[in-house]
Amino acid sequence: MDTPSAEFIRKDKAAFRVAPNLADYTEALKSNAWDSVKGELTWFPDGGINLAYNAVDRHVGTPTEGKTALLWEGDNNAVATYTFGEMARLSNQYANYLISLGVAKGDRVFMFLPRIPALYAAVLGGLKTGAVVGTMFSAFQKQALVDRLENSGAKILFTTNELAKRLDGTKDTLPDLQKIVLVDSPEFLGGIAKQSEQYDCVHTKPEDHSFMLYTSGTTGKPKGVVHAHKGIVHEYVTAKWVLDLHPDDIYWCTADPGWVTGLVYGILAPWMLGITMVVHGGRFDTNAWYQILKKYKVTVWYTAPTAIRMLMAKGEELVKSYELTSLRHLCSVGEPLNPEAIRWGVKAFGLAFHDTWWQTETAGMMMINFPCMDIKVGSMGKPFPGIEAAIVDDAGNPVPDKTEGNLAFRPGWPSMMVDIWHNEEKYKSYFVNNWYISGDRAWKDEDGYYWFIGRADDVIKTSGERVGPFEVESALVEHPAVTEAGVIGKPDELRGEIVKAFVVLKDPKKYPDQASLDALKAELGEYVKKHLAGHAYPREIEFIDKLPKTRSGKIMRRILKAKELGQPIGDTSTLEEY
């Protein structure tokens, strides 16, 4: 296998505020994850534990009660601030309201809300009652909503007057849905205000279901991935060590709570640590984002490669026109982090973005780059301490270093999914020879760093050579004319497959005619040959305005391939408009 040369961003480890000594925790996490952090979380006397209680209620009666928990900014200059005590009491009112509707432990309570304070209170209130909470991205349309609500058997749905219109005419298809709660209606606002601010949180057991989120595949309906309250251990520790959150930090996670990142690391885990969070309810806008970083003096920023590339396209000078010296730690999630994005972070902010890899099914970071780790540019990083990772073949047998295979993990980490809702066969399919098979292809180097190749069904085999689409995309993105690229394998009689690239240009006006575009295609092909490998260059390049992505920012190569080959594109409920 062609392996990249080791390009490091070296860290002065003494300069970082490193969380507790990792070596002290590693063996504890391997043997008994509970013991390593039991004293840092709040357990009920009967052995129960609740995510929401640990997020807000446990701060009541401590100095953190009066500390700002949420700095919210919406559209039209709307702002709001909540302390931990206020959020604890407001979520108690939501819990009491749910109880008044007949909600009991195990019932499914879903949220179809934009990033407004009501969303955060509803999530916490639902968890406090022992209900199973589900969040749905506010851009979902009717079919995506029906699929999730029908499969989950959701009893209560929180939404707004405007978003509720997307459910018109669906009543007969959702027999389990007893009430749609409109959080911006006078009826609800009056009713919630009358609810008691006191509530005795349900003593959920570690194995009790806590939240469920839906993932989409190439075929079939979305799958409901179910998690349990015991995941709190993994979620808490990774937020503390990988995001390196400390009491005086101002933290911004740009992910929407409709996705697992926005739920776990945008609500629950940071508040367990008593951290002040910024939430921006508006659309992406480069200047607005920089203004938020400046205005709130954000110190720790967790965002996505797609957003980073969009910021890159606006240039370094714009970044430097803002006073952003408060930033001290940058992290990335959602899709692989291109090397150029890491280098750009160093040039633009004086800080490297630290990649993290995990999935809805894992509910917590699995592959990480600690603040104190030397970064191997382009790699995924290393497994979180206590996580046993390996590269295995299709039978679940580990393969030697520098050998491509399936990225796999030993089952049993605290935040591992506990079920696929009403689909035991699908759940079992994730496990082979006592390994959880992630569905990603990767390899491990001699230093223990892992390198992403692509989704198992994305890897290209051309003239007998295997090519990972991500490495070709990364090479293309480093060219100064390119903003983004999506790469697929296209069937070819001679070579089996050829590499085809779909490219988004930074400035299309520079290439006004076919001759200039053809010259650029040739230039890009030679650029990939020079920077990657001769067999990996794209034999076909198509310039497009926009790549198909999920709303969490992942490039949907299967959509590109399906459109290219005239095939059905499968479930598109998580896709941006394309």
TrEMBL record:
Residues 64-410 form the AMP-dependent synthetase/ligase domain. The keyword Zinc does not apply. Its EC number is 6.2.1.1. GO terms for molecular function: acetate-CoA ligase activity; ATP binding. Residues 471-554 form the AMP-binding enzyme C-terminal domain. The keyword tRNA processing does not apply. This is acetate--CoA ligase. Signal peptide: none annotated. InterPro entries: AMP-bd_C (IPR025110), AMP-bd_C_sf (IPR045851), AMP-binding_CS (IPR020845), AMP-dep_synth/lig_dom (IPR000873), ANL_N_sf (IPR042099). It comes from Candidatus Gottesmanbacteria bacterium RIFCSPLOWO2_01_FULL_46_9. PANTHER family: ACETYL-COENZYME A SYNTHETASE, ACETYL-COENZYME A SYNTHETASE 1. Keywords: Acetylation, ATP-binding, Ligase, Nucleotide-binding.
